[in-house]
Amino acid sequence: MPRKITDLDQLTEHADVLLCDVWGVIHNGVNPFPLSVEALKAARARGQAVILITNSPRPAQGVIRQFETIGVDPECWDDIVTSGDVTRQLVSEGPKQIYFLGPERDMALVEGLDVELVDPGAAKAVLCTGLFDDETEQAENYRSLLQGFKARDLPFICANPDRVVERGDRLVPCAGAIADLYAELGGETRIAGKPHAPIYREAMARAQALRAGVDKSRTLAIGDGASTDIRGALDNGFEAVFIARGIHARHYISGRATDETRLQAFLDAEGLAPAFWMEWLA
């Protein structure tokens, strides 16, 4: 069982850098979590560098604008690295004729890139940031479209590897769910966000710019997503702090409490061994 902690300051001597997830840890897409925001502000005041590392398909400026809209205090982070930021490199290295699968609000992802957005039939690659309407659709709605792409062996660039994300008190599907379906059909997926290495390399480069000499042994990754945040941390050589009251809570929450036996069973089933766990980031 990972060690349970109740306050982030218990790990002050353990880490110089915190790589912290956003959705499900700092906010739920509608409201910020005040205790989490204050915990990160306090960590910065103690001298720890806080790099927010998110699978948002938007470049960092889009995340900052969302923070401003819902009221996340900008003093809780030093820098932000998004899946959108590192996905731009994948897009620039790929075919130029791209079918953009996702809501119009994510179009900033391709601004300034030498690509042409085309209809499905003319595409040489697919760039997916999410569902067109994640309030009413599921990945399965895209099966026939994906089958057509697979028949032509188009690479599928996924800008948001998350399968689901919290929006208020609901879970809504993300681009990762569509990428999973494309892979199931035998298609090629290209992903740079969590749990893959490119986003962690970029996050550590940002940390080095803030604190020369930092390394993985003095870095903690914090998140609520088992297959993205925690798997990514462990696969890339970081110790992890699992936030229990996130997208997986239904697996082990009993009433208002976390059933630690069920939590351990969940982590075992996922093949994960984070060093620490918390109910909430606080």
Automatic annotation (TrEMBL):
<dbReference type="Pfam" id="PF13242">
    <property type="entry name" value="Hydrolase_like"/>
</dbReference>
<dbReference type="InterPro" id="IPR006356">
    <property type="entry name" value="HAD-SF_hydro_IIA_hyp3"/>
</dbReference>
<keyword id="KW-0378">Hydrolase</keyword>
<dbReference type="InterPro" id="IPR006357">
    <property type="entry name" value="HAD-SF_hydro_IIA"/>
</dbReference>
<dbReference type="GO" id="GO:0016791">
    <property type="term" value="F:phosphatase activity"/>
</dbReference>
<dbReference type="InterPro" id="IPR023214">
    <property type="entry name" value="HAD_sf"/>
</dbReference>
<dbReference type="GO" id="GO:0005737">
    <property type="term" value="C:cytoplasm"/>
</dbReference>
<dbReference type="InterPro" id="IPR036412">
    <property type="entry name" value="HAD-like_sf"/>
</dbReference>
<dbReference type="Pfam" id="PF13344">
    <property type="entry name" value="Hydrolase_6"/>
</dbReference>
<protein>
    <submittedName>
        <fullName>HAD-superfamily class IIA hydrolase, TIGR01459</fullName>
    </submittedName>
</protein>
